[in-house]
């Protein structure tokens, strides 16, 4: 079809490194590619993500939000520390940790509009080296997830307020918040292209209506710059739960040519004018 002149335009294949790592750089793969001009001049961008929990033959295609913004916070609660036998002579950051955790976990419940998705999770707490020593510092490390940019900013602001509780208790704190991937939003038009291609190839019952979760994906940087969409390709092996980011992760590799075909056919339809951005 291309040789016969039926297709007009170009298809640019983007092979992205470091989707969930910085690869030695101060950013993940998508912003590196944006920095280097990889998507410059393209009309639309499409992508897939395998889903090891979704049956083979199913496709999840969302119109709108597809992934959450992911930020991190690191905090240090500090006190004087001291001897465990003489707590009255010390300021104890482990004691201060209790009200801080209560305040942190109250942010989503009492500070965020309940109609706006948000997550705050504390994944690490480290302190102390001995049973009879009050440590001078407690370290916390957590993640903040959201879709709405105002909610994203509110979460960061409220983490600061939660930590400030330690000051009336005789302690202090340091806080670092690192903004990570933005929230990913699929173009309604481009997601429609992919959905039609998938149903034409796999049947109307192939589309799965599962709503988005609070996972993050750096393809969001691409759709922030260019109209685009990502679909999730069913890849479950079926013998057991093989979730992403686990030691038993695996996929049914029969899905790979299916995913490639959906991408290729969607691009073909755009090049021959069967679908358009307007």
UniProtKB/TrEMBL annotation:
UniProt keyword list: Hydrolase
Keyword Cell membrane among UniProt keywords: no
Stored InterPro entries: Amidohydrolase (IPR017439), Bact_exopeptidase_dim_dom (IPR036264), Peptidase_M20 (IPR002933), Peptidase_M20_dimer (IPR011650)
GO molecular function: N-acetyldiaminopimelate deacetylase activity
Ranges of residues in domain Peptidase M20 dimerisation: 75-163
Keyword Acetylation part of the UniProt annotation: no
Entry's Gene Ontology BP terms: diaminopimelate biosynthetic process
PANTHER family: METALLOPEPTIDASE, PUTATIVE (AFU_ORTHOLOGUE AFUA_6G09600)-RELATED, PEPTIDASE M20 FAMILY MEMBER
Protein name: Peptidase M20
Species assigned in the record: Kouleothrix aurantiaca
């Amino acid at each position: 079809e291309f040789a016969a002149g039926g297709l007009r335009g170009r298809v640019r294949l983007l092979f992205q490194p470091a989707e969930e790592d910085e690869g030695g750089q101060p950013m993940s793969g998508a912003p590196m590619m944006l920095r280097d001009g990889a998507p410059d001049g393209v009309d639309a961008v499409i992508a897939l993500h395998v889903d090891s929990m979704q049956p083979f033959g199913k496709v999840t295609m969302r119109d709108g939000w597809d992934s959450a913004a992911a930020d991190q916070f690191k905090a240090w609660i500090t006190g004087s520390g001291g001897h465990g036998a003489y707590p009255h002579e010390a300021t104890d950051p482990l004691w201060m940790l209790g009200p801080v955790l209560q305040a942190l976990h109250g942010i989503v419940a009492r500070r965020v509009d309940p109609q706006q998705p948000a997550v705050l999770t504390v994944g690490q707490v480290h302190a102390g080296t001995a049973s009879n020593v009050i440590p001078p510092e407690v370290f916390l490390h957590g993640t903040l997830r959201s879709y709405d940019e105002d909610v994203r900013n509110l979460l960061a602001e409220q983490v600061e307020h939660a930590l400030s509780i330690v000051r009336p208790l005789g302690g202090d704190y340091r806080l670092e918040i690192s903004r990570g991937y933005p929230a990913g939003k699929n173009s309604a038009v481009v997601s429609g292209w992919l959905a039609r291609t998938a149903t034409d190839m796999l049947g109307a019952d192939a589309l799965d209506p599962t709503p988005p979760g609070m996972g993050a994906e750096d393809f969001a940087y691409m759709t922030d710059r260019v109209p685009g969409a990502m679909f999730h390709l069913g890849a479950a092996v079926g013998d057991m739960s093989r979730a992403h980011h686990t030691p038993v992760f695996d996929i049914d590799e029969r899905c790979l040519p299916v995913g490639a075909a959906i991408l290729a056919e969607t691009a073909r339809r755009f090049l021959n004018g069967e679908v358009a951005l307007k």
